[in-house]
Specification:
Elements: H1 9-31, H2 65-78, H3 85-91, H4 97-105, H5 112-121
Helix pairs in contact: 3-4
């Protein structure tokens, strides 16, 4: 019988984390080469609070529906592959385009995590990178 020694589960998980970290670093570096597009001009953003651009612990507030609609349409103008509410919902990890419509209409406030993801994807906010305190199996 042939025995093949394998590292333990904790060691295997560490290898997986290390590879995922290398991939994340490559993505962050590639992000630096993203194109710069003109800002949206549909609405005058100076007439609205900028609290929707803050982090949650910095005083974040959900964006006004006018901001939501303008930002989403701005994305769609430059990226036709996200030309429907369903496509934006998919981009943001939502299962229903109904939620996107509700955000734009102001019927539902955009949750922080969904909005932050959108801001990061559109280069309006930096990506958060968290330190690992330890590998705790």
């Amino acid at each position: 019988m042939i025995k093949i020694p394998l590292p333990g589960i904790a060691a295997q998980q560490k290898v997986i984390f290390e590879e995922a970290t290398r991939q994340a670093i490559a993505t962050l570096k590639a992000n630096l080469s993203a194109p710069t597009l003109p800002p949206q001009v549909e609405i005058d953003e100076s007439q609205y609070s900028r609290a929707h651009l803050l982090r949650e612990d910095e005083g974040w507030e959900p964006p006004h529906p006018d901001i939501v609609g303008a930002y989403f349409r701005h994305l769609q103008m430059h990226f036709p592959e996200y030309g429907t509410d369903q496509k934006i919902a998919g981009l943001l990890g939502l299962s229903s385009d109904r939620r996107i419509r509700e955000f734009k209409q102001g019927k539902t406030k955009v949750p922080y995590g969904v909005w932050r993801k959108f801001l990061v994807l559109t280069g309006r906010a930096p990506q958060d990178v968290l330190p690992i305190l330890a590998y705790m199996g």
